[in-house]
Amino acid sequence: xxxxxITAPAAPAPVVETKTAPGNYFVANYPPFSFxxxxxxxxxxxxxxxxxxxxxxxxxxxxxxxxxxxCHFCYFRVYTGKDAKTERVxxxxxxxxxxxxxxxxxxxxxxxxxxxxxxxxxxxxFLSVAQLNQLFGGMKAILPWDDVEEVTFExxxxxxxxxxxxxxxxxxxxxxxxxxxxxxxxxxxSNGRAHLSKEIHRAYDFARAIGFPxxxxxxxxxxxxxxxxxxxxxxxxxxxxxxxxxTIYQMEVPYNTTIYREMQERGEIVSPIADWATxxxxxxxxxTEFGHAGYxxxxxYTAVRNPQTFRFLYRDYLWKGADMVSLGVASxxxxxxxxxxxEKDYDPYLARINKGELPIHRALAMNEDERLIREMILQMKLxxxxxxxxxxxxxxxxxxxxxxxxxxxxSGGHLTIDxxxxxxxxxxxxxxxxxxxxxxxxxxxxxxxx
Length: 450
Fold this sequence. Notes:
This protein has helices spanning 42-48, 86-104, 129-142, 162-171, 185-190, 197-209, 228-241, 258-266, 276-292, 313-318, 346-354, 368-380, 387-394, 398-401, 403-411, 426-430, 432-435; strands at residues 58-64, 116-121, 150-155, 175-181, 214-221, 245-250, 296-297, 302-304, 323-327, 332-335, 338-342, 360-365, 384-386, 415-418, 421-424. It starts with 41 loop residues before the first helix and ends in a 15-residue tail after the last helix. The chain has 450 residues and is of the alpha/beta class. The chain has a 9-stranded mixed beta sheet. A 3-stranded antiparallel beta sheet has the order 10-11-12, with helices on one face. The chain has a 3-stranded antiparallel beta sheet with strand order 13-15-14. Helices cover 37% and strands 17% of the residues. Helix 2 packs parallel to helix 3 and helix 3 (129-142) packs parallel to helix 4. A hairpin with a 2-residue loop joins strand 10 (332-335) and strand 11.
């Protein structure tokens, strides 16, 4: 059926969430991950067998799953203690480079140069200087970084020595992203963070002194034992630090976290955790304070000191359909309209790499309708939509196709529509992940997100 003939699904009124209940709230992709299937893994391989769509940027995401400690709210694949010993880290780096070598031979990737590179975790800064040199050098030798515009590297402040920071700068990291989360030591301890406030300041001050082009700090509103007073103090400390950009998330309780296990065992969260209305109010307060300091809110999660200078190319390219090779355990990638995720544990991942196979565990090739909705909902997180973009790329009039859900959000006071432009206001951005479900196709609603 031609895309333009599909009628808009009925849009239910957005559900007003109150209590922080178990489950994933953050909409990271579309269709939901629970629709990516093992039996469809071949769809990602099929995408790799085709030439790239002209003009499509290429990126690389590398998942580094080693940590000093697992945070109580963490739901990512991570390894600590004996599972993060040096020999396992070295073996993992070798495997990731072999994986990239396999990708570099595929028709979709061969001869292309990445435009962005992102190192996430886990804790990428868990690696030693020697390991970082091995990883970066190996990646550059396989797919040259001549055209790379942005290299983002996530860090846990307590793992950053002066030598490691110098190494990262010299290796070409353009955006250093510090997982600060909070400045109060009691909050950090009760949430299982490995670092304390003194390590934040030491790492930040040295990184600033040696001239990283962009420094981002992450904060989380509504961590265990958060209070109004402590949050306001945290925001004041963050503003005083004057990062180039700040990313603020609202605390959620995914199923595979320490907090969720506590809820299962006791029937409730023992430590206080804020409801959604409180978390939205706290984020709003933070954005207001950063606004007073000259920052601009550029998405549901980010405030930036100078939007013309400090950008998030990884996000902006990916949310407009860029190809992204993902390396490492449980990592997510996107290839020519096909989503995929790698094997979810260390041993199966290495076993497949050592057999010369790509370790893809599950996948989903999107149809044109799903691609349209994916880009639409992700770009709404940036504060709005330009109908002309979707008209030119998908030959769809989104203001007609999605007239009912857009009107639902407009009449609810979450956005405005002016000509081709949809603008999400602050109230809408603060609860955007809750609102986006009105654009999901019927078969993707009311399903487990992961």
